[in-house]
Every structure is written in structure tokens, then in C-alpha cells.
Amino acid sequence: xxxxxxxxxxxxxxxxxxxxxxxxxxxxxxxxxxxxxxxxxxxxxxxxxxxxxxxxxxxxxxxxxxxxxxxxxxxxxxxxxxxxxxxxxxxxxxxxxxxxxxxxxxxxxxxxxxxxxxxxxxxxxxxxxxxxxxxxxxxxxxxxxxxxxxxxxxxxxxxxxxxxxxxxxxxxxxxxxxxxxxxxxxxxxxxxxxxxxxxxxxxxxxxxxxxxxxxxxxxxxxxxxxxxxxxxxxxxxxxxxxxxxxxxxxxxxxxxxxxxxxxxxxxxxxxxxxxxxxxxxxxxxxxxxxxxxxxxxxxxxxxxxxxxxxxxxxxxxxxxxxxxxxxxxxxxxxxxxxxxxxxxxxxxxxxxxxxxxxxx
Length: 360
Hints:
There is one protein chain. The protein is α+β, with helices and mostly antiparallel strands and 360 residues long. It is built from 9 helices and 19 strands. It folds into 3 domains: 86 residues, no CATH class; 124 residues, Jelly Rolls (Sandwich), CATH 2.60.120.10; 108 residues, no CATH class. The strands form 4 sheets. The chain has a 6-stranded antiparallel sheet with strand order 14-19-15-16-17-18.
């Protein structure tokens, strides 16, 4: 015997409460239409929830169709796993009143405005460069956008993991316990991801130092985004490595294979780190003007090359450079092992810096 084609009638449910549900959040909707269940974008379908909603719709049918709203249950829960959500019947096909239609149209209009306003901003950011437009549209709809005034705490040290923050405008500072600024971040940069990836509490406080606009991705949505778009996971782990290296450099540590940008750590600071640690290795530099290399033996400079310059003159020229990429590698070529220092290390740096001051 054929089952009636209208067994599962159209309906929309909205989540009104959530307690440790691993998937869904308050405000998200589930739509039943033409024998299918649609869940929020980027979210997996939960089989426990599907069973509950199927039973709800079936119960409507066993009561001779959709009864009047006032005569049937409209609030439900799903507690099939360790978490719990409560959801309500938002709309039934047979009760799409003019007021409900207007509300739906208003919500759809809000979503379109939300997408139009922020899609272009996110498209310009490096972390979303590899996402297709459709995927970025879905991602945008998961974000909450807010404006934060200057001198406000965004994340407090010790806070549990809560959100990934994307800076759309303004600036924030990473603040130490004594109130000093450890680092600053501006448009296009992200923060909060280290706690989300590690599951640990925030290691530093972050304050706004100007009026700031941010996009927030909740911890729950963050996990689903990483599962669906591995390219974002790769980007975030690369960012973690870079930040870990930057923190090591600021703490006075350098190791083989370390690389980064001179905008974060100056050439002078790098040379001083290598000297104070008495390292033997080479500092390779990829600069707008060309490539350079400085060789160290037990922290002392034994040879340097940059453009047409060699040794002392190369060092004097390099300390002026502000932009470029560096890589430090352990060890030096065999032919350089018997080379003597080209001069006293601090004397070389002081001479180079003095030449910059005189030129200025």
C-alpha cells in the first residue's frame, strides 16, 4: 500500500534554548519541506533531531491534519545525546498568516542586507581568498557583527574559549598583566583562535585602542567551519606557527628554521638575539632591494653580503632595512668555519645605527 504523499507536512522550527548541544545554537531554524529536513548552513544533520521532528510532524497528521495553533503543542525538546535543545513551531504551511508572511519577508530582507554589507569586506581578507563565493556567503551568515568603542575589554585573560574575532576596522592591543602592550592588531587580522583550537583559557587580555568593528564566529560554529573548509584550518595553523615564532623572538629565543617578517622583528633585534645566544648559523634576508645573508659563528658576525656590499659595509646597509622576510638556519658552510669576526659585534651595530642617525 502506498504511503500518503503528504505524510510529512511543511513546517519551520526555531531553537529557543540550548544547553551543551554539540551542533545547534539559539535562533537557528529547521525546515521541513517535501519529505526533507533542512538544517542551518554548514551544520551537519543530527539523526536524533531528525527522529524527533519526524515524530512531531507525524503526530500532527494523526490528529486529522494541522489543528489550530492554540489546540496543539508548539514547544519541543531534543535530548538524544549529552546536550539539549528546546525549539518551537515557528510556522506551519496551513497557518502562513499575513503577519507570518511579513515576518518571514522581513527576516529574508535582513539576511540579504547582512550579506550585502559584509560579504565584500570579508572577500578582501587573505584568510578567505581560497573560499568560493557560495561558501563565503554561507560563512558570512554564521557571523555576528558588532561595533566596540575604544578602551573596552574584548577578551579578558582567563576567559574560556568563546569566539573567533575578525577585525574589520579599528585596532586592538594584546595587554600584559602590568598594563603594557605586548602587540597590536589591525584591519584583516584575527584573534581568539588560539583558545578555540587548544580549548584552553585566554592567555592574554585584548583591549580596543580605537573604535573597532569585529565579526564574531562562535566556538560551536568555528568547529563546523573547520570541518567543512579544511583550507581555513590550514590558514589558521600557519598563523599559529607564525605567532608562536613571533612570541619566541620577543621572549629572546631563536631556533633553526625560524622565519618571519621584519615588520614584526627588526634586523637589529634579530642580530642581537643570535649574538646573545652565541648561535652559529646564517640569517638569510629576502628584501625589496634584493637578497642578503649574514653568517654568525658563536654569535659573532664572520661574513655578510648584501647587494654590492660585503662584510662591515653590508651590515651597515642592512640595519637600515625595515621591510622584508627573514629565515634563520643553524650551521655555516665549511669554508667559513675558519673565518674570524669582521669586528666587535656591538661596535658594528652602533656604527650602523650612527650612520642612520647622521643621514637623518
